[in-house]
From TrEMBL:
Keywords: Signal. Gene3D superfamilies: 3.40.50.2300. This is Sugar ABC transporter substrate-binding protein. It is found in: Cell envelope. Residues 46-308 form the Periplasmic binding protein domain. SUPFAM superfamilies: Periplasmic binding protein-like I. It comes from Svornostia abyssi. Pfam families: Peripla_BP_4. Residues 27-46 are annotated as: Disordered. Residues 1-24 form the signal peptide.
Length: 370
């Protein structure tokens, strides 16, 4: 489903929900929420638990889009918001607090996909439905899952890297994967390997990066350069834009010409798009986060109101080890210098004024972005 199609579906569903008397919500940065109950009935409480802030998307994109959509379609909702700062124990405490505050539904993006089953079990004890958001909670009876086709993300990254390496046969690469506690990272890696392994490319070094930390990715890349040799690395698979930034920083520090060493990424972060336009990063994966967050908001509001999901929203199933989970699956898009204008710029995912500021003005002009 394309971002534009999902937006149209979301708007239609929102109008249908509004016609049924649903309504907007307040929130509280400390996680308590501020009640905005109206004459239509008792306020519904929606818990939104995000995993971390090192990846800029969560505070810059996911949270505001989710909150805005809930506010649009639900007058008598309030949001219990928390960010776990990449601390699984902290997220467990935040979930317990949401249960205590009487959450009607929990939207959970887990720090640790496996240990988060404890959060789900606790919610179930209080009859609170759980939506697994963006990252899949494994081996737990979640009610719904919403994300992108994450193996496809890895395939897009691997395919793009091979294209940049003219097929890859005989070339040497380094793999900088994501966090070993994130189930999505495992899927990205599996998708990438499904493309890279049969290609003839040689994976000289491969790392799983704790916490998705750019600093740790830089350290890993430093180790790879020392071990393999800076003249023997032809490309870098980096699982997201943060790890790509760390790998690129390490290569620059070693005096390597990063414009000749294609590096992948994911999330279409502003800094990554600027690097792509400047030729320092080869590609990223654009996941239309706003439609993802808006669809999660629609689903959460419907569940909180005791209703079925909006028609057409759920479009698949995913096995999380506990069973087949009804899912909303969105399609990722590979972004290179050639299609920046027609993807993230066209969708207003990045602001042109920010993208083309300062030293990047000439790069934007060369790409036809003004």
């Amino acid at each position: 489903m394309s971002p534009s199609t999902l937006r149209r579906a979301a708007i239609a569903a929102a109008l249908a929900l509004a016609a049924g008397g649903l309504a907007a919500c307040g929130d509280d940065d400390d996680g308590g929420g501020s009640s905005t109950s109206s004459s239509s009935g008792e306020a519904k409480q929606i818990a939104l638990l995000l995993p971390e802030s090192k990846t800029t998307r969560y505070e810059a994109k996911d949270r505001p889009a989710f909150e805005a959509k809930v506010k649009e379609i639900c007058e008598n909702c309030e949001i219990i918001y928390s960010n776990a700062d990449q601390d699984a124990a902290k997220q467990q405490q935040q979930a317990e607090a949401a249960v205590t505050k009487g959450a009607d539904v929990m939207v959970l993006d887990p720090v640790d996909s496996a240990s988060a089953s404890g959060i789900v079990n606790r919610a179930k004890q209080s009859d609170i439905p759980v939506i697994s958001y963006d990252r899949l909670v494994t081996d737990a009876e979640i009610d719904y899952y919403i994300s992108f086709d994450n193996e496809e993300v890895g395939k897009l990254q691997g395919t793009s890297l091979l294209e940049a390496l003219d097929g890859g046969d005989g070339k040497s690469i380094v793999m900088i994967n994501g966090s070993p506690t994130d189930n999505n990272a495992k899927l990205f890696k599996a998708g990438a390997h499904s493309v890279l392994d049969p290609s003839g490319v040689k994976i000289e070094k491969e790392y799983d990066t704790p916490d998705w930390s750019p600093d740790k990715a830089q350290q890993e890349m430093d180790q790879a350069i020392t071990s393999v040799g800076k003249d023997k690395i032809d490309g870098v698979y980096a699982a997201n834009d943060g790890t790509a930034g760390g790998a690129i920083a390490a290569m620059k520090g070693a005096g390597m010409d990063v414009t000749k060493i294609p590096t992948t990424g994911q999330d279409a972060e502003l800094a990554a798009i600027q690097r792509i336009l400047a030729g320092e990063q080869y590609m990223t994966v654009y996941k239309a986060i706003t439609p993802e967050a808006e669809a999660a908001a629609e689903l959460a509001v419907a569940i909180a109101q005791g209703e079925e999901p909006p028609s057409g929203l759920v479009n698949g199933e995913v096995d999380n080890g506990s069973g087949m989970i009804p899912s909303v699956l969105l399609k990722p898009v590979a972004v290179t210098k050639e299609n920046v204008k027609d993807t993230v710029v066209k969708d207003e995912f990045v602001e042109v004024s920010e993208l083309c500021a300062g030293e990047y003005a000439a790069d934007c002009k060369a790409a036809g972005i003004e």
